[in-house]
Design goal:
The chain is mostly beta strands and about 550 residues long. It has three domains: about 25-150, Immunoglobulin-like (Sandwich); about 155-330, Cupredoxins -  blue copper proteins (Immunoglobulin-like), CATH 2.60.40; about 340-535, Sandwich (Immunoglobulin-like), CATH 2.60.40. It has five helices and 35 strands. The chain has helices at about 1-25, 175-185, 315-320, 380-385, 500; strands spanning about 30-40, 50-55, 60-65, 70-75, 85, 110-120, 125-130, 140-145, 160-170, 195, 205, 210-220, 225-230, 235-240, 240-245, 250, 250-255, 260-265, 270-280, 285-295, 350-355, 360, 365, 365-370, 370-375, 405-410, 410-415, 420-425, 435, 440-450, 465-470, 470-475, 475-485, 490-495, 505-510. About 45% of the residues are buried. One of its GO terms (molecular function) is copper ion binding.
Length: about 550
């Protein structure tokens, strides 16, 4: 009896020590409450209704550390349902928190939803923005900066400062009027201007001789931008969470939905210098300027605004091909990025996606492989969880282009967990496209002109292609990505150009493992909003770590 008591005491002691260790090892939590309201601002000098978060335009910046847990209570005070999506945050095992209409019910007016997600194994520059209707055209976007954990080295000295610049095209028209334009079957007009952090002019100050990081994100609706700083070189160090070979540029193209980070050393005579963002591949060039202010400067910006690249598509393609993965650098984990040899993996499947701009029922729509997506009343993720039929189709979407008329549907492409896919974006239109995949980053292994064929694989970069979450596809060209489908869930693949997304150029990948376990996917949140055919249903959180 005494031996049993000693044994029990020993076991309890070990469990207690284990429990303490688990508690101590738990990643930090950060708590936020954000209230979404309308407000009036004059970004381009004309008063207009915008969307504020906690009274701010743009919204608050999220500064977190790798693996931080984020608990964010979002209160919707608009007159329309609303969601935020976290652009580039992988939501590991947790598409429940992705914040798009295929995974979440929109938050009703005068209601709230608490997002609970983790910046799991990520580092770098990202953004958030509204995924509902045309709310993105009114604001409510912001930056997400994920910093490295202690003892995880970064491949450059810590900068002396850190600036986040949210750059994008802007309309003087309200988001409701823009939505009415699209709903009527017409395209959006040309933007009215370009903003940097919600304004046409800002000042960013630094000390002569010091080096600063600039994080640039294109948060606009439709337009590629070129970014440059008068008299200063831009040393690229990070692209959407991927540390790069540190090439130096005079200017950088940043396409819709993309983010880059570069270092700038203030090594010029003390004065103020232009910071410039201007539209690319547009007949009319729109420009926004700000100032880089040396703290010992007494001379304001002067002279002509530095011009952007005079060359167009070929120049941009050439620059894009110079973005390379830093194979020896660590990212969010201590192991080198290049320890994953993606180029040695044989893809399990090739998906060839041709974007198009068809007229359906005499209205403008956009499509992949002739299918123009429509949002159902019930989020796909909820339909999947509750086994509700008739919400989406798994057979309406062909993974290669075919001839015939375009049509509307709600397609989901079924895939298996740990598949490795080659996805080719074929753009036969005369305008540049920007393509985004939620839940992942991917290797951008090739850009090419004309029609893609299997022979083009010989041109792929299978050694040090950069990983990112949004890739541009040049006019009458193709872009190939490779993606390891290691994140179970329902994931949105879409055009980052919001008119095209809104009018159907998107679908979902269902990444699935038949063995249900918390090792591969988290339970449905206890606070999940239910809508459509899921109303009145009762979630059963029955998954365990050590079994089905």
């Amino acid at each position: 009896m005494e031996k049993k008591a000693v044994l029990l005491h020993l076991v309890c002691g070990v469990l207690a020590v284990f429990s303490v260790a688990v508690v101590k090892a738990e990643d930090p939590y950060k708590f936020y409450t954000w209230t979404v309201t309308y407000g009036t601002r004059s970004p381009l000098g004309v008063p207009q209704q915008v969307i504020l978060i906690n009274g701010q335009f743009p919204g608050p910046r999220l500064d977190v550390v790798t693996n931080d847990n984020i608990i964010l209570n979002l209160i919707n005070k608009l007159d329309q349902p609303f969601l935020l999506t976290w652009n580039g945050i992988k939501q590991r095992k947790n598409s429940w928190q992705d914040g798009v209409l295929g995974t979440n019910c929109a938050i009703p007016p005068n209601s709230n939803y608490t997002y609970k997600f983790q910046a799991k194994d990520q580092i770098g520059s990202f953004t958030y923005f509204p995924s509902t209707q045309l709310h993105r055209a009114a604001g409510a976007f912001g930056g997400i900066n994920i910093y490295e954990r202690p003892r995880i080295p970064i491949p450059f000295p810590n900068p002396d400062g850190d600036f986040t610049l949210l750059v994008g095209d802007w309309y003087n028209t309200s988001h409701k009027e823009l939505q009415q334009t699209l709903d009527s079957g017409k395209s959006l007009p040309f933007p009215a201007g370009v903003l940097i952090n919600g304004q046409t002019s800002n000042t960013f100050s630094g000390d002569q001789g010091k080096t600063y990081m600039f994080r640039i994100s294109n948060v606009g609706l439709s337009t590629s931008l070129n970014f440059r700083i008068q008299g200063h070189s831009l040393k690229l160090v990070e692209v959407e969470g991927s540390h790069t070979i540190q090439n130096t540029y005079d200017s950088l193209d940043v396409h819709v939905g993309q983010s880059v980070a570069f270092l700038v050393t203030l090594n010029q005579p003390p004065k103020d210098y232009y910071i410039v963002a201007s539209t690319r591949f547009t007949k009319q060039v729109l420009t926004a300027t700000s100032a880089l202010h040396y703290t010992n400067s007494h001379t304001p910006v002067s002279g002509p605004v530095p011009a952007g690249p005079t060359y167009q598509i070929h120049w941009s393609v050439k620059q894009a091909r110079t973005f390379r993965w830093n194979l020896t650098a660590s990212a969010a984990r201590p192991n080198p990025q290049g320890s994953y040899h993606y180029g040695r993996i044989t893809p399990t499947k090739t998906i060839l996606l041709a974007n198009s701009a068809p007229m359906i029922n005499e209205k403008q729509r956009y499509a992949f492989n002739r299918v123009s997506y429509v949002n159902p009343d019930t989020p796909l993720k909820l339909a999947d969880y509750f086994n509700i039929s008739g919400v989406y189709s798994s057979d309406s979407f062909q993974t290669v282009p075919s001839s015939g008329s375009a049509f509307v549907a709600t397609p989901v492409v079924p895939t298996s967990l740990h598949d490795f896919h080659e996805i080719v974006f074929q753009n036969n239109e005369n305008t540049l496209q920007s393509m985004h995949l939620d839940g992942y980053d991917f290797w951008v292994v090739g850009y090419g002109f004309g029609e893609w064929t299997p022979a083009k694989r010989k041109t792929y970069n299978l050694v040090d292609a950069v990983t990112r979450h949004t890739a541009q596809v040049y006019p009458n060209s193709w872009t190939t990505i490779l993606v390891s489908l290691d994140n179970q869930g329902m994931w949105n693949l879409r055009s980052a150009i919001w008119e095209r997304q809104y009018l159907g150029q998107q679908f979902y990948l269902r990444v699935w493992n038949p063995v249900r376990s918390l090792y591969t996917e988290y339970n449905i949140p206890s606070n999940a909003l239910l809508c459509g055919k899921a109303l009145g249903r009762h979630p059963q959180n029955d998954l365990e770590f050590f079994g089905v």
